[in-house]
What we know:
Blueprint: H1 2-11, H2 14-31, H3 34-47, H4 50-72, H5 81-96, H6 107-114, H7 118-128, H8 133-155, H9 163-187, H10 189-192, H11 195-234, H12 238-252, H13 256-269, H14 275-290
Amino acid sequence: MTQILVDILLAINNRERAIILWLFILVVFALFNKKIRESFTHLIKAFFQKKLVQIYLAMSLYIVGITLLIAITGFWNANNLPTTLKWSLVVAFVMLFKLEKANETDYFENSFKDNLKVLVIVEFIINLYVFNFWVEVFLFPIMVLLSSILAFSETDKQYEILKKPLNSIFIAIGIFLIIFAGYKISSNLSKFATINNLEDFYLPIVYSITFIPFVYLVALYSNYETVFIRLGFFVEEKTVLRYAKLKTICAVKFSIKNLNNWSQYINSNWRFKSKQEVDDAILVFTKSLKK
């Protein structure tokens, strides 16, 4: 276990270490501030709700399954464990908590393209060559502050005047980082062109792409749960309710779009009192999908 932690620490760069340090400082500050501590406690409780814990367990099993498949093909070995854990703790959770995007019509296509953009290569190279640890510690809060101001300027027209200069600053920072990374690569090409760097580049992409179906299924389950709760409000007979749920699954299957359309349709047009009414509603709805 200790060796795994050491390997993880070695796998993360100075920028990531700086972020961890600032997060640690914020947690310590929160623990010594009563109001923040109470809010932090509520946040932790919300994060570890029973249903979410079940999703985390399912996610872990799914990632293990992906890892085994990649290992069978020969593109993963024990040395890649730190990279896998880092991706799981950061990227996987971000994708999971953005599952509302799964409601988009072109979710699979857009998600796939996002992982194959040239920008992915640029971001990898930029993150590969970072500054001294203490420089990163100093820069992180500045970047967070600038990002927060930019986000705020986009929501309030009163501060929209700040948007253009802030975007210019970020563009300048991006160009500088690209030039800096380019200089590092050109000065020591052999250090850049390694199997380890290649694995660190393609593994997160492979994980992210193969993780897309899991996020979609979680979003689908969440939407089904919402629809079934809504059905329970206006279907009194339990046998009719169970029948309506079964027919919904058979009619909608794996389409979140159709499920949302079905939810809106029955919410405004139907209050099922019999199985026949369920069948009639399903018939009308499925015909509307073919138009």
